[in-house]
Design a protein that fits this description.
Protein name: Glycosyl transferase
Shape: globular
Organism: Neptunitalea chrysea
Helix content: 40-55%
Radius of gyration: 16 Å
Order of helices and strands: HEEHHEHEHHHH
Family: Belongs to the bacterial sugar transferase family.
GO molecular function: phosphotransferase activity, for other substituted phosphate groups
Number of domains: 1
Structural class: alpha+beta
Keywords: Transferase
Number of helices: 8
Strand content: 5-15%
Distance between the termini: 23 Å
Largest sheet: 2 strands, antiparallel
Length: 161
Amino acid sequence: MLLIFIASFDTKGTGLFFQKRVGLNGQSFVIYKIRTMSVKDDSISRFGSFLRTLKIDELPQFLNVLMGTMSIVGPRPDVIGFADALIGDDRKVLEVKPGITSDASIKYFNEEELLRGKVNLDYVDRIWQDKVKLNKEYVENWTFKRDLKIILTTIKLILKR
């Protein structure tokens, strides 16, 4: 709660950020995050940068897990436009609950740094396509052991920062 309170002052908006995402079976739901961008100019705030670096802004998604719209591990939920672009076999990623972390989240842990100064096409043409491939592979080859490995790897990456 303290982080949400600080984020409210830092971003000049509500401390919680709400956004529609696409989850299980293509159903939309509201995802929760701590607000990291200024309401005035859509720039990442100083406190927001700190939260993003440690992935702390994602903590409210445990509410989504408790509500049953997300799991801890699974493909990250896309915004509506990207989810609509999934075709054929790629739609398999919508057959499971989206997760807070995944193989794709691990591979692109520093995605903001990779995209800094680049146009959106870099994301669509390279990163998003690779994430879909990784997420589909996860769905097709799921194991409990793999989920544990993803959780532990995510924790290690966060602690390294």
